[in-house]
Design a protein that fits this description.
By secondary structure, the chain is mainly α. About 80% of the residues lie in helices and about 0% in strands.
Length: about 110
Amino acid sequence: MVRSNAAQIIIALIPIVGIVMGSVVVFFYLLWKHKRKMSLIESKLWKESVFDLLTFSLLGGLLLSIVGLCLTVFLAIVGGRNYGLLGGIIPLSSGIALLSFFLIKRFDRH
């Protein structure tokens, strides 16, 4: 099947437009959050939020490990052993690293 030049240009522009639109959304979200925080500070209603790193690492590690394991198994069955398998191995190893961090920090506390 032969594609026309116009179709190839449109197909090439779709990811670029998606990245630009995503960047615009993130920029305006950060701007809104900054303005909101400044107005709360001016009205003396702002309280610093506490971020629980251990809970985040546990949740992120579980999610990444499960998704990475499923992708690794699927890509190994479909494509065999090739570079496409990295699409599952990378999130799997990231999830295992986050779970390891969680275990090390949890046992370090006690």
